[in-house]
Amino acid sequence: MFTRLVTSALFAGFVTGLIAALLQLVFVQPHLLHAELYESGQLAHAGAAGSPAHVPSEPFDIQRNGLSILFTALIYCGYALILVAIMSLSEDRGNRITPRQGLVWGVAGFIAVHFAPAVGLPPELPGSAAADVGLRQTWWFSTVAATALAGWLLAFGTSWRAWGAAIVLLAAPHVIGAPHPDTFTGTTPPELVGLFAGAALGVGLAAWVVLGILSAYFWKNSADA
Amino acid sequence: MTTVLAQINTKTATLLFTALLGLSVITFAGHIQAATLHDAAHDVRHATGFPCH
């Protein structure tokens, strides 16, 4: 069973990671590189005077982007291991796992690990002011765990007690609030920050839909070794 | 009965272990702040919405 869990997760995670990396390089990375020009001081945003909305694209950095592809694949393999384990748990309780259902699992996963944390801590561009990284990571992990558990309770709960607990879990991280810095010192134009956050969330949704479908597909089509 | 219980426990342990393995991979690739790891995963951490720096 362990072999089946790991092989289906690795297949699904690795393929998703490659797709996610490609989407990130095309849609997210240009905003990130643009922002680094402000972080390093090569560009300065002067408010009303404006700054260029388009900068020449940088040559493809094989080492930097190669590492990005590798780490994206790693991260989605990690997510797939957790996703397939939870799918299998739900299957033991009578839920059928099909690729069509995997789509819903993928959207739920996106909400748990991208969207819910982004409500308090939107994807940050390099150079943004932020609170202590340890505090943000604690809030991030707590929010993901609470939202994922809420998703399970909403989907598989059968009583108002379960659904009520889900609503409390969904709201709690945002009522408590994410850690934010005392002062905002970002030098990047706000338009760029918005473009980056939107693109990062869009790519996250696309990747998670693929991850959900593929995880269900490989889990369904692999046999116990 | 004992065999059934043992099977259930093994299954739960396997699922838990698989999920923990996944969590370790996420923590390693996305959250540990060691300089080398941070630099290598920098762009992905920003693009994936992990808290970075």
UniProtKB/TrEMBL annotation, chain A:
Regions crossing the membrane: 67-90, 102-119, 139-156, 163-180, 192-219
InterPro entries, alphabetized: CbtA_put (IPR012666)
UniProt keyword list: Membrane, Transmembrane, Transmembrane helix
Signal peptide: none
Source superkingdom: Bacteria
Matching Pfam families: CbtA
Organism ancestry: Bacteria, Pseudomonadati, Pseudomonadota, Alphaproteobacteria, Rhodobacterales
Protein name (record): Cobalt transporter subunit CbtA
TrEMBL record, chain B:
Recorded superkingdom: Bacteria
Any Pfam family: CbtB
Record-given protein name: Cobalt transporter subunit CbtB
InterPro entries registered for this protein in UniProt: CbtB_put (IPR012667)
